[in-house]
Amino acid sequence: MTRTKILAVLLALSMFGAVTVQGAALPGVTAQQEAPDGQQSGLVVESITAPDSAEPGSTVTVVAEVSNPGSARTTQEVEFRLGGDVVDRTLVTLAGGENATVRFEADTEDLDPGEYRHGVYTGANSQTATLVLSESFEIADFDAPESVEAGELVTVDVELENPNDFETTQNVSFWFDGSRVASEAITIDDGDDEDVTFNLSSEGVAPGTYEHGVFTRDEGELAELEVTEPGPTDASVAFEDQESDGTTVTVDQLVIPSDGYVTIHDDSLLEGNVVGSVIGVSEYLEEGTYENVTVTLYDVEGADFNETELTESGTLIAMPHNETTGDETYDFVASNGTDDGPFTVGGQPVTDDATVTVAGANETADNETEAPPADNETAANETADNETAAPTASVALDDQTSDGTSVTVTDVSVSEGGYVVIHDSGLLDGDAVGSVVGVSEYLEPGEYDELTIELFDVPGATFDQTELTENQTLIAMPHLEDSGNETYDFVTSGGSADAPYVDDEGAVTDAGNVTVAANETAG
């Protein structure tokens, strides 16, 4: 049986303008009619519109745009062919300059799955296309978010399966709020599957509930998406002076732009002891704004304490931290500062300090009297000569070119001796320990010029590289020798030993831009 006999065509013609349509094919009619002036004229198929694929047994609609580019009124056969065979024809009459839409509906019930070439022809030209009869791709899995903040990316993942026994290509589209916003031609091998991801920015989408989904040719999955008001973009914290029983403190206000925690540090943070200064952490908090967050002290994952409560009044510091590992457990201390680091604004950790008074501590009984000074001296007679001067330091790290294995500190002075430490930019994210990439030899008290420091050779630190490979900003920081062993112990102690020199503004530092020689571009 030929394809001409297999394919049944239901013909419907819709014409625009002054067009004559003859509804049945008339064998023997000449393909074109002679114009009054003796010139021949023919109809032209301008375009056809047809699906790329369809389900076997379905009715396929093929629409052709036919025009008469000549000046004379012309009658001509328009043929619909499948695989080269004529399956139907009709006569179309058009005046000069007119056009018409011709519509064919093909019943594919008796056709086997596969690829078919079809087209619409006149005596002058043709337009053809390919039709694949196949089963639709199936949606095996559909993963879509239930809500996003306005401005965030909407990501929808689908797993598609090809149920056909041959490779085929079909269009898969993503719809949002009644409109198709993306479409992609997907090719899948016979019996295979394919993962497809659609991304849509919700920038400019008003908060509300929307319907969205993914459609294959014949299947679809729909879901509801709630677009919410955008949350805060920066973290902030307010920590007011307060009285405590020694076991908890209260953070008055907290804003975190993503999930995280608020931690409490003692004042050793001001000396650069970022990890060892953590004495309290809140429960896991979802992104948002909070008031009166209670933080329990001396119960921190990965930390060991010699006390269970505050015994003295003093300054504590609140610092919001980000949940970076996804385990909803505060890992900053346990990871030695590499995970769940602090939120930053302008490259600096977000903090606020408060004076915490411990009830019952540091109080003097009403009936107590101070013992008189020894040798009849009074406090008023004490002189500054008996006071111990605070350690001081200065450092300068100029912009420079390096071979990647060392840097040169321009000048440094250390009043009590110690080291010059080189940190990478992780220091600006609060990673005081993990950011150490270089350290000098032990320095006696004094001043030093053009001090070379080897990189990636630090006691207690492990590195994935042996030299700098990218241009970057490094930070020089003088550290004290406070353990007496003339060995740099800051990293191995988790930041509790050989702390940085500090002044009124915090740790003494200077930053310089380091260009790796291999990355220089000739001028």
Structural topology:
Layout: H1 3-6, E1 8-14, E2 19-22, E3 44-49, E4 53-54, E5 59-67, E6 74-82, E7 85-94, E8 99-107, E9 114-121, E10 126-133, E11 138-143, E12 147-149, E13 153-161, E14 168-176, E15 179-188, E16 193-201, E17 208-215, E18 220-228, E19 236-238, E20 242-244, E21 248-256, E22 260-266, E23 278-281, E24 288-296, E25 314-322, E26 344-345, E27 348-349, E28 352-358, E29 393-396, E30 400-402, E31 406-414, E32 418-423, E33 436-439, E34 446-454, E35 472-480, E36 502-503, E37 506-507, E38 510-516
Parallel strand pairs: 4-10, 12-18, 20-28, 30-38
Antiparallel strand pairs: 1-8, 2-7, 3-5, 5-8, 6-7, 6-9, 9-10, 11-13, 13-16, 14-15, 14-17, 17-18, 19-21, 21-24, 22-23, 22-25, 25-28, 26-27, 29-31, 31-34, 32-33, 32-35, 35-38, 36-37
